[in-house]
Amino acid sequence: MNYRHSFHAGNFADLVKHALLLWLVDRMRTRGPLTVIDTHAGAGLYDLTGDAVRSREAEAGVARLMASETLPPAIRALAQDVAALNPEGGVRFYPGSPLLVARRLREGDAYLGFEMNPPVVDLLDQALAEYPAAKGRAGDGYVSLAGATANARGPLVLIDPPFEQADDYQRAADAATAVMRRDPSATVAIWTPLKDMETFDGFLRRLSGGKPGPVLVAEARLRPLTNPMKMNGCTLVMLNPPEGAEAVAQEVCGWVAETLGDTGARAEVWWATS
Ligand SMILES: C[S@@+](CC[C@H](N)C(=O)[O-])C[C@H]1O[C@@H](n2cnc3c(N)ncnc32)[C@H](O)[C@@H]1O
């Protein structure tokens, strides 16, 4: 397994995913105790003075976020979490999805994150040590998902693979539709890169074939999708999102495209099925 999220932590795609994740958690918690399952958890906390310096992705992402003075509410919520982890100022530490969720858990809520890479599992355990309701577990998140959601009513599931394996799109789509078949009150959010439209269309066709109910696609395009070798943007595909998701997705993807994108950047937010 070659993928290291530490190179990408705090990039534009993390900002899209994490701002929308925070909104989903806050919104879904209003209904009662919430269970969050993260199939691909990562380390939980990233020190941006490591690998991220070489990639310069955080410099073009979270560093610019923290330097911006006016932020729309959903983006501001993420900036507040980042600021809380850096009490001395600057942006040395950036939270991953496990820590962002763990910090929000209240009595009765729970978080369970799966991670395949043993050294990353150790980092995940360290990041969650202070949060007894949040657990990391070694294992394949796709395989473990059915068991993890079996006793949870209306959970929030994040599927955030590295997309290094050729079958990640297929496994993500099938895992998501299996959750929705078992519990139509669940919400699933799947992160994908956006390189070319053909790959993404194939993924959406696979997903829609599983009849997952309402599917909202939130795209942040940093540039026109002309070079399929590049990550030209990203999406968060939300199955059965709470009311209000469309407007928040527009706010988040619009801010990211406008602030961090090149010429021709734009947000596209649309219902693939409703
Ligand atoms: C994109 S990162 C996750 C980032 C994290 N969700 C966040 O937002 O902070 C993907 C992680 O999935 C792990 N991974 C890869 N395949 C996996 C699998 N089948 N099950 C669980 N984890 C996996 C990788 O080691 C990597 O740490």
In CATH, the architecture is 3-Layer(aba) Sandwich
Number of self-contained structural domains: 1
The overall pLDDT, averaged over residues, is 96
Distance between the termini: 37 Å
Structural class: alpha/beta
Bound molecules: S-adenosylmethionine
Indicate the proportion of strand residues: 15-25%
Helical segment count: 10
Kindly provide the name of the CATH class.
Alpha Beta
| CATH T-level fold name | Rossmann fold
The general outline is globular
Radius of gyration using CA atoms only = 17 Å
Give the strand tally. Answer: 10
CATH superfamily: Vaccinia Virus protein VP39
Taken in chain order, the helices and strands follow as HEEHHHEHEHEHEHEHEEHE
How do the strands of the widest beta sheet line up side by side? Answer: 5-4-1-6-7-9-8-10
Task: Summarize the amount of helix as a percent range.
Answer: 40-55%
Uncertain regions spanning at least 5 consecutive residues: none
